[in-house]
Design brief:
5 strands, single chain, globular, three-stranded antiparallel sheet, 369 residues, binds glycine
Length: 369
């Protein structure tokens, strides 16, 4: 069933390699988030997306062993030190930021300084645990003390890693408590997930759910569905607890049914037909989750997940890619949020998950989470 050498995968990988071997050098001194006039532009060191650029470079390095990628990844990791050294600049997305930069560096090269940075980030994430609610708190700010978001399922692999390398179960307890609460309150019976759950930070009592970056309350922000699908899969991979696998499958079935007409994700699966707002990143995050999920189940079940992931990646290639020489980003049609002013822009996370999906499809299977 696996198709590591099929033409479309090889062609896409070669185009990615051609483009990134140039951009890895031209964008070496920055932390890209989006583009202006076709070129990646720098963003502040504390921004949640800053692990994706070094993570993408590590995926390319592991696959090609070319030093240009390693050097760019190392430069980005050092640029992140500005955020690591200022407490106010740290938040729950330290998982996205350091596990894909320092965590990847340590995993692939054994770099001790990277280990320390990643452990520091893990301690910051663990410190955001609210004992009463059992959740890891999301954003900073007085008004955000009682918010937990689905995205954080992608931050907790940092805690599973810390537990494994330090042989210290505390990190895993926190990660599993957060995953269990997410299963209980974010995952809906139909397999969709809500973006945001609000709890009383003093009592832990659940107040209500919100669809933060989606269309409206009760809708279905597609990137959030992707975070849930991949996040529960990763919790299963790290713990082997059946309930996380079952949860991942529920979100996967919901996601597949939402995109199976054309394998393209709208920004919110429950938004009105017009205007059409896509989110290329949602499909690609889900595709990476589906590829991992396909390895967690038996052969009979696996095919649906693997084939659906291929369909999403193929549809992305056909509709949302730019392999030209005069631009930096590869994947178009990313979004920040349904109600964010600018739509269909280049987002670093669309590029990252495209490269991760192709890395898996090519059979390199570099695992950074
Ligand atoms: N984690 C923030 C987002 O997905 O936009």
């Amino acid at each position: 069933m696996k198709d590591n050498n099929s033409d479309w995968i090889n062609q896409a990988w070669d185009l990615v390699e051609k483009k990134l071997s140039r951009v890895a050098i031209s964008a070496r001194e920055i932390l890209p988030y989006t583009t202006e006039n076709g070129k990646y532009v720098n963003c502040d060191a504390d921004w949640w997306t800053n692990g994706f650029w070094p993570g993408m470079m590590w995926l390319m390095y592991d696959a090609t062993k070319k030093n240009i990628y390693k050097e760019t990844a190392e430069t980005a990791e050092k640029l992140l030190d500005k955020a690591l050294s200022e407490y106010d600049l740290l938040h729950h997305d330290v998982g996205f930021m350091w596990h894909l930069s320092s965590g990847a560096n340590y995993r692939l090269t054994g770099n001790k300084k990277s280990y320390t940075r990643n452990m520091f980030a893990a301690n910051v994430l663990a410190g955001r645990f609210n004992l009463k609610s059992g959740y890891i708190r999301a954003w900073n700010g007085e008004e955000n003390k009682g918010f937990a978001i689905i995205d954080c399922m992608m931050n907790i692999p940092l805690l599973y890693w810390a537990s494994e390398v330090e042989k210290d179960e505390r990190f895993k307890y926190i990660a599993m408590s957060h995953a269990d609460k997410t299963l209980e309150h974010h995952l809906r019976p139909d397999g969709s997930v809500t973006h945001l759950v609000e709890f009383d930070p003093l009592t832990g009592e659940i107040i209500k759910s919100h669809d933060g970056q989606g269309y409206k309350e009760g809708s279905s922000w597609s990137r959030g569905q992707g975070w849930g699908l991949y996040g529960f899969t990763l919790s299963y991979i790290h713990t082997k607890e059946q309930r996380y696998l079952d949860a991942a499958k529920r979100v996967a079935h919901y996601f597949i049914s939402a995109v199976c007409n054309d394998w393209i994700a709208k920004c919110d699966f429950r938004a009105p037909d017009e205007p059409i707002i896509y989110d290329s990143s949602a499909g690609l995050i889900a595709a990476c989750g589906l590829l991992e999920l396909s390895k967690c189940v038996n052969e009979l079940e696996s095919k649906t997940y693997y084939t659906s992931a291929c369909n999403i990646v193929k549809a992305t290639i056909d509709n949302f890619t730019d392999f030209s020489d005069d631009t930096d980003a590869i994947v178009t049609h990313g979004t920040v949020a349904y109600h964010f002013g600018q739509k269909h822009i280049n987002m670093i996370y669309s590029d990252y998950y495209f490269v991760e999906a192709l890395n898996k499809l090519k059979g390199y299977n570099t695992f950074l989470w």
